[in-house]
C-alpha cells in the first residue's frame, strides 16, 4: 500500500527535488503531492489526509508553526507525523514545533536524499 506524503514549501525547486527523490528512492511506496504555501497546504492536508507532512517553517502568509497550530486542531491532523524543513538558524525556534508533535527535522542547507528517505521510512513504519 502506498503512503501519501504532502510537501508544503514555497521553494518550488526544493519541493521538486524532494518530491522526485522520494518517488525514485521510495521505489513506488510513496505518492507525493505538493502545496506551495501554508494556506494551500492546509486545504490539501484536510482533503488528502496524508500519512506524512514535510513542512517548511519559513513561508509567506502562513508560517509552518501557524499551519501546525491550525492543523492540529482538526481531527484528521491530530496524529499526522510532520517532518520540518528548516534553516540551521531556525533550530533554536523549534521548541514550539516539538510541542506541536514534529517528528523530525531536515536542515535545508545540509540535506541528503538518503538521510531524508531513512527518516521518512522510520516514521512511516
Mean pLDDT: 90
- General form: globular
Report the top-level CATH class.
Answer: Alpha Beta
Spatial ordering of strands, largest sheet: 2-1-3-4-5
The count of DSSP E runs of length 2 or more, i.e. the number of strands, is: 5
CATH architecture verdict = 3-Layer(aba) Sandwich
The largest pleated sheet is described as: 5 strands, parallel
Rg, alpha carbons: 13 Å
The helix/strand order is: EHEHEHEHEH
Strand content: 15-25%
Question: Topology of this structure?
Answer:
Elements: E1 3-8, H1 12-25, E2 30-35, H2 38-48, E3 52-56, H3 64-72, E4 82-86, H4 95-99, E5 102-107, H5 113-123
Helix pairs in contact: 1-5, 2-3
Task: Provide key terms for this protein.
125 residues, alpha/beta, Rossmann fold, five-stranded parallel beta sheet, 5 helices, 5 strands, globular
Verbal overview:
The chain is of the alpha/beta class and 125 residues long. The protein has a single domain (3-123), classed as Rossmann fold. It has helices at 12-25, 38-48, 64-72, 95-99, 113-123; strands at 3-8, 30-35, 52-56, 82-86, 102-107. It has a five-stranded parallel beta sheet. Helix 1 crosses helix 5 (113-123) and helix 2 runs parallel beside helix 3 (64-72). It is globular. The mean pLDDT is 90.
Short description:
The protein has helices spanning 12-25, 38-48, 64-72, 95-99, 113-123; strands at residues 3-8, 30-35, 52-56, 82-86, 102-107. By secondary structure, it is α/β, with parallel strands linked by helices. Helix 1 crosses helix 5 and helix 2 (38-48) packs parallel to helix 3.
Amino acid at each position: 500500500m502506498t503512503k501519501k506524503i504532502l510537501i508544503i514549501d514555497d521553494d518550488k525547486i526544493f519541493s521538486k527535488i524532494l518530491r522526485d527523490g522520494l518517488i525514485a528512492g521510495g521505489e513506488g511506496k510513496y505518492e507525493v503531492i505538493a502545496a506551495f504555501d501554508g494556506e494551500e497546504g492546509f486545504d490539501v492536508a484536510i482533503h488528502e489526509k496524508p500519512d506524512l507532512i514535510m513542512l517548511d517553517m519559513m513561508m509567506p502568509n502562513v508560517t509552518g508553526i501557524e499551519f501546525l497550530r491550525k492543523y492540529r486542531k482538526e481531527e484528521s491532523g491530530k496524529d499526522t507525523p510532520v517532518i520540518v524543513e528548516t534553516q540551521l538558524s531556525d533550530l533554536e525556534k523549534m521548541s514550539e514545533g516539538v510541542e506541536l508533535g514534529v517528528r523530525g527535522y531536515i536542515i535545508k542547507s545540509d540535506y541528503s536524499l538518503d538521510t531524508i528517505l531513512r527518516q521518512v521510512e522510520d516514521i512511516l513504519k
